[in-house]
Amino acid sequence: MKKKLLASLLSVAMVSSLLVGCGGGSADGGAAADSGAAAEDGAAADDGAAADDGAAAEDGAAAEEEAQAVTTVGDPNGTHLECWSFVEAHNTFYAKMVDKWNEANPDRTIEVTFTTYPYESNHTKLLTSLQAGTGAPDICDVEMGQVPNVYEGLDTWLYPLDDAMAPYAADMLTSRLDAYKGSDGKQYGAPFHVGATVQYYNMAVLEEAGITQADVDAVVTWDDWAALGEKYLDAIGRPEGKYWTSVDTGGVDWQWIAMAEYGEDWTGGSADATANVQLDSVKKMLTMEQEWVNSGLAEVSPDGHVDLEAGFQNILDHNIVSFPKAMWYMSRFINYMPEEKGNWYIAKCPVFEEGQNCSVGIGGTGTVVTAQSVDPALAADFLCYAKMSPEGETMIWEDLGFDVCNTSLWSDDSFAHDESNQYNTFFRNYPYDVLNEIKDQIGVVMTTPISPTINEQMCNVTLNDILENGMDVDEALQAAQDIVALEQ
Amino acid sequence: MKIKKFFYSQKAAPYVFVIPFILSFLFFWVYPLCSTVVMSFQDIGPATSEWIGIKNYSKLLRDPTFRTAIANSFEYMLGTLILLIPFPMLFAVLMDSRLVKAKGFWKACLYLPALTSVVISGTLFRLMFSEYPTGQMNVITSALGLGTFKWLKMKSTGLGALLVTACWRWTGVNMLYFLSGLKGIDTALYESAEIDGANSWQKFRYVTIPLIKPTTIYVLTISVYAGLAMFMESFMLWAGPASPNNIGLTIVGYLYNRGIQKNDLGYGSAIGLVLLVIALIINIIQLVANGTFKKEER
Q: Which range of residues forms the domain containing residue B186?
């Protein structure tokens, strides 16, 4: 009898191992099956694109590998929600807001499980689950560059936030809210910040070279700015490896600033407009950047842009002393370059011609509530409370260091000049003073379904061709336009 | 009793044993393949799928990025064929000869990289080929007085880095295939060749190579496919599917970019099918030319 039992057990084992074996290897056998399995590992485990904000995140020139972290916070008896993000700091912030929400709303308490995925996984998992109609979280962070993909499903995928944000909408910067509207005009995403671009200057190094804050304040146009750079390089004797600035091949921030200054938009401004990358503003900026690289005023950012480890190191080594970047870049100073405390000064970006807009909102996270949520109305109320209420915005400024979208706070002294805030003390001036100054000069470049294609072509090919390989600007832009036209 | 009879029946048992394979084959292979064919003619939207005929394919024909991807995959495949067939064969012959001491050790050394995750090895190679003066390859080239290079920004060095990664990883695996082929050759053949006065080269040329042909064909077939379908190595080397001037873009990398990242599964399906057709055509030509389908060969 025992033998029979053994025999039948063996055959069961054999049959099941066959089944398992086939599942993995039926595709192509041998080495190919092996690499298939590895591909699966990779997609799930890796590629943390560090850049949480910025159009540059698109290019996936990832820096750090972020470990997946799961935490559950809140009232165990409350409604259970799931929340995904690609930045751990965002989840930490939401977790604090859960406690505040539960205190303020004892009859609608929640418990939230937070999961932090790498950039790539966060968005592919969300898209796949939305498409499949099951498995999506209640709340999910969506980076600006991914917004067109995720918002494609409109209200079949997502829950509109219009009702939930009504109490706060009046104080919010409209242009920012508009960036996260669906093509049906409904609000699907809640913003973290304006992402206004400003010019960062390493005043400590500039002063050693005899350049004062008054000189920096006197800069109006890009020509003024480049002249100041020449003055700085002359003063330090033009040593090898030292530059005034670094231009990006892995991000389109500079082109965005140029477009905002001339009031142009390469997407055409809406989903059904015709995209055109051969804009005067873009040509002028690229021609200027190419000249700077050739004259030794600028270098090409190591690894593509400044929001990467190589960029931080470049700044720490004082290889570059001035560059434009969105205000959220302040948190990079706090987190990655604490040695630079007290050295940096924030000012308006230069313009091409006096009187132009001098800033543009870049990057951002439009957090969404999915239609699959167990209680979408509750999730939306919590989300808008966390990201739009004065309590939430104060904490965003304190913890994350973002330029918040609730404009009523910008001129509030206890908020903007709070000496206990690490961002207020890190820089030589108050960041919100600069923001108030440029309040009405923040332009908009839309993110539409064609945006990922434009960004990809720029970051992979065009900017490399122009800045690294010295290709003619018109020729490179024509090639880019051909690719973009193919997609429309 | 009936069940026992059923299992012991010589007619039924074979079917019972093949059923799991057939089922999983149908479910995990035939169904996805058919559905890919259907999807490649559709525009897959969030809620609905629209039939758009051959639009995906006509767009593919006009897409210069796709041509770059195909060219890259072909160059990589040819490179791996040139490097990953002769050298592993040579190593296998060495391992099989009396010239090498401590064979187990060398075999283990060569095979070890295949056990490492591509994610880890790709990241390490990325750091080694970094453009900074502190990157390992730049340290070596500067020591040799050649200066530093932006390895992963230029076409030639980028492809070189991919091939180095591939050789590091697959040499040991292919060597094992050849070793098992060599074990199947009757030593009497070598002895009779020696009696006939053949030297080492002649023995290799006229005994080893013809008799190892089935293994060579097998390795060639899977290498053609693996080369064309390469994705992970490039994904890890450039930390994502994007690379400067698309020098590291492969067919599967483009499929991932279109199908998953840009959420256009219809276009992605068309890319996947083109890859399948290309790999099939090359392999069928190659197998026919090698005479695999002739009955006498085996």
A: 54-119+170-289
Clarify whether residues B88 and B34 are in a common domain. Answer: no
Which residues in chain B are contacts of A131 at CB distance < 8 A?
Answer: 46, 263
Handedness of CA A385, A391, A395, A401 (dihedral sign): positive
| Cα–Cα distance for residue pair A24/A30, rounded to 1 Å | 11
Buried (b) or exposed (e) across A364-397, using 16+ Cβ within 10 A?
bbbbbbbbbbebbebbbbbbbbbbbbeebbbbbb
Question: Which CATH number covers residue B107?
Answer: 1.10.3720.10
* Residue B135 belongs to some domain of the structure: no
Q: Are residues B184 and B241 in the same domain?
A: yes
Q: What is the mean pLDDT of chain A?
A: 85
C-beta separation of A355 from A440 below 8 A: no
Pairing assessment for the beta strands A79-85 and A245-247 based on DSSP bridges: unpaired
3-state secondary structure of A401: coil
What is the CATH code for A69-192+367-409? Answer: 3.40.190.10
Q: Which of B119, B223, B231 sits opposite A45 (nearest CB)?
A: B119
Q: Half-sphere exposure (CA, 13 Å, Cβ side) for A293?
A: 22
Q: Which residues of B touch A149 (CB under 8 A)?
A: 261-263
Rounded Cα distance, A88 and A76, in Å: 22
Please count the CA atoms within 13 angstroms of the CA of B263 that sit on its side-chain side.
Answer: 26
Choose, out of B57, B58, B66, B119, the residue to mutate when testing the contact with A (most A CBs < 10 Å): B119
Report the alpha-carbon distance of residue A485 to residue A447 in Å, rounded: 17
**Are B5 and B107 within one domain?**
no
User: What are the tens digits of pLDDT across the range A132-174?
Assistant: 889 999 999 999 888 888 888 888 999 999 999 999 988 888 8
Residues B113 and B20 in one domain: no
> Does the beta-carbon distance from B24 to A22 stay under 8 Å?
yes
Chain B: residue whose CA lies nearest to A23:
B24
Check pLDDT > 80 for residue A12: no
d(CA A439, CA B47): 40
Residue range A190-248, pLDDT digits in tens: 999 999 999 999 999 999 999 999 999 999 999 999 999 999 999 999 998 899 999 99
Taking alpha carbons only, the member of A210, A155, A194 closest to residue A369 is: A155
Task: Give yes or no: residues B186 and B274 share one domain.
Answer: yes
Q: Among A35, A57, A62, A32, which Cα is nearest to A46's?
A: A62
Minimal CA separation from B37 to chain A, in Å: 16
